[in-house]
Amino acid sequence: MSAEPPVRPARPALPITPAPPDSTARPYRDGIPEHGRVPKSYAVKMRLLGLMDELGEDALLPPERELAAEYSVARSTLRSAIAELVMEGRLRSARGRGTYVAPPKLVQPLSLASYTESVRSMGMTPGRRVVTVEHHVAQPDLAERLGIRPGDLTVHLERVLLADEEPIGLESTYLPLDRFPTILEVLRPEESLYRCLQEDLGVVFAEADETVETVLAAPREALLLGTNPALPMLLTMRTSYDPHGVPIERVRQLFRGDRIGFATRLRAAT
C-alpha cells in the first residue's frame, strides 16, 4: 500500500490592506512604517494629495497661511511638502500667482516611434523649436557609436521638444554626413526627423540600444527648457540601427522629470 500523502497545515489568513483611492498620484502603499511615526511634512503631503484630488487639474491651492492653520503645522513644514510635490511634477508654482495642481505627466513609450506620433497619441500637439543645425566633427566615442572614423563629419540637429507649446525636452541628434549628404536639403528642422528619414530617404529602422538615467540639467539646458536646474531630469541615450545592423543615428534626449515619464511592455525571453 502506498503511503498517504502528508496533510499540509492550512495557511494562516493574511491581513488584507484596503485599496487606496483611485489616483495615479498616490503610491499603492503610503509607506507609513509600523511604528506609525512619519515626518510632519509627509503627513501634510498626504493631506495635500487628497486636497488636490478634490480641487482638480489647474486649480489654485489655498494660501499657505490658510493651509498651515488648517493642518496645524508651521508654514516651513507646509512649504517643504509643497516643494516636494512641485519637484515630483504634481504641483506647479507661478511666481506672484500661487501654486496650482499640475496636469498628469506625459507618458513617452520606449519604442522606435517618432516623438510626433507619441505626443499625438496623448491628445496633444507636438512641436519643435530649432536651437542648432550644424556640421559636427565626431570625437572617438561618437564615431564608435555611429560606425565612422574619428574626425568624420556628422550632421548635428539640436531642438527643444514641445507639447502644446510647452517645452518638455531637449534633443540632440547626430547623423553620419557621408550616409546622409542631402539630409539638410530635404529636412524641415521643425518637423519630424523620423518621418523625413523614412519617407524621404527610405531609411528603415530595425532596432535600437537605449539607456535611461536621472541627471540634473546644465545651466544652458535648464534655460532652454525654462526649468529649475535643481529639478530632476530624465536622460535617454539611443543608437538606432537599420536591418543590416548599420548605425543610423545617435540621439541624446533630456526630458523634464516633472512633466514626463516612460512606459514600455516587457516580454519573457524566448
From TrEMBL:
Keywords: DNA-binding, Transcription, Transcription regulation. Residues 1-36 are annotated as: Disordered. Residues 36-104 form the HTH gntR-type domain. SUPFAM superfamilies: Chorismate lyase-like, Winged helix' DNA-binding domain. InterPro entries: Bact_HTH_transcr_reg (IPR050679), Chorismate_lyase_/UTRA_dom_sf (IPR028978), Tscrpt_reg_HTH_GntR (IPR000524), UTRA (IPR011663), WH-like_DNA-bd_sf (IPR036388), WH_DNA-bd_sf (IPR036390). Residues 27-36 have a biased composition (Basic and acidic residues). Pfam families: GntR (PF00392), UTRA (PF07702). It comes from the Bacteria. This is GntR family transcriptional regulator. It comes from Streptodolium elevatio. The lineage of its organism: Bacteria, Bacillati, Actinomycetota, Actinomycetes, Kitasatosporales.
